[in-house]
Write a structure and sequence with these properties.
With 235 residues, the chain is an alpha/beta fold. It folds into 2 domains: 5-131 and 216-234, Rossmann fold (3-Layer(aba) Sandwich); 141-209, ACT domain (Alpha-Beta Plaits, 2-Layer Sandwich). Helix content is 30%, strand content 28%. The chain is built from 6 helices and 15 strands. The protein has helices spanning 5-21, 36-52, 63-72, 109-117, 150-158, 195-203; strands at residues 28-32, 56-60, 85-90, 94-95, 101-102, 119-127, 141-145, 163-166, 168-170, 173-174, 182-187, 208-211, 213-214, 220-224, 230-234. The strands form 4 sheets. Strands 2-1-3-6-14-15 form a 6-stranded mixed beta sheet, sandwiched between helices. A hairpin with a 5-residue loop joins strand 14 and strand 15 (230-234). The radius of gyration is 18 Å and the shape is globular. Bound molecules: ribulose-5-phosphate (5RP).
């Protein structure tokens, strides 16, 4: 039977998403990332809640994930009720050999980074094509910005050698994040030489809420393959 490229990509995402969900232990708090790969994790967690009585409290990283987890019957809590998260499962847009990442393709970078920052363990689920030698070579770097500061932040980012473009939800309509901000997607023509330094520099620009550079936040990488198998790497 032949499968389309789309089906193969979905199969890789499913393999990674389910494998990570099987790492979750009962009576734990679980950060629930955002995106199409995380969808498969949510489905598997819901299955385990039903079939094994897995007891978890999920902490969602976006409105989208909140709605999906609610529909699947996954219990959830907010950051007011949860101080520490045992394990977070999230996707990524690029991840390098040091497990540094670009995230935010789905626009949820701010909440994803907050949740990652209080997680004892962050498990990243991706297909092989997202594992890169150098960040910024296959994906734009998202930067979440308050609306008022878009022009000044855009100029400051350009001065760092990138080309920022306002993300739109429809032609001519700026995308609004779950937090009421906008996103500038930045293309670095040669990729990003020093992700750690760049993260700090971007964070220091007034009006920047957060960047999609995730530094030292991931400990485990689950790579899904198109044949439905998966591989786990530890930092
Ligand atoms: C959302 C994210 C996602 O984790 C990232 O974009 C990967 O998404 P997908 O699993 O759909 O490829 O950072 O802000």
């Amino acid at each position: 039977m032949t499968t389309t490229k789309e089906e193969q990509v979905a199969s890789a995402k499913e393999a990674a998403g389910r494998r990570a969900a099987d790492m979750v232990q009962t009576n734990t708090t679980v950060g629930l990332g955002t995106g199409s790969t995380v969808w498969f994790t949510l489905v598997r967690l819901a299955e385990r809640i039903q079939s094994e009585g897995l007891e978890i409290v999920g902490v969602p990283t976006s409105i989208d994930t909140t709605e999906k987890a609610k529909e699947l019957g996954i219990p959830m809590a907010g950051l007011g009720e949860v101080e520490k998260i045992d394990l977070t499962i999230d996707g990524a847009d690029e991840i390098d050999g040091e497990f540094q990442m670009i995230k935010g393709g789905g626009g949820a970078l701010l909440r994803e980074k907050v949740v990652a920052s209080i997680s004892a363990r962050e498990v990243i689920i991706v297909g092989q094509e997202k594992v890169v030698e150098k960040l910024g070579t296959t994906f734009l770097l998202p930067v979440e910005v308050v609306t008022f500061a878009l022009p000044t932040v855009s100029r400051a980012l350009s001065a760092l050698g990138c080309e920022p473009v306002l993300r739109v939800s429809d032609p001519g309509v700026a995308l609004m994040t779950d937090n009421g901000n906008q996103i500038l997607d930045c293309r670095f023509p040669e990729g990003i030489d020093d992700p750690r330094a760049l993260e700090a520099t971007i964070a220091s620009i007034p009006g920047v809420v957060e960047s999609g550079l995730f530094i030292d936040l991931a400990q485990v990488l689950v790579i899904g393959n198109e044949d439905g198998t998966s591989e786990v790497r530890e930092k």
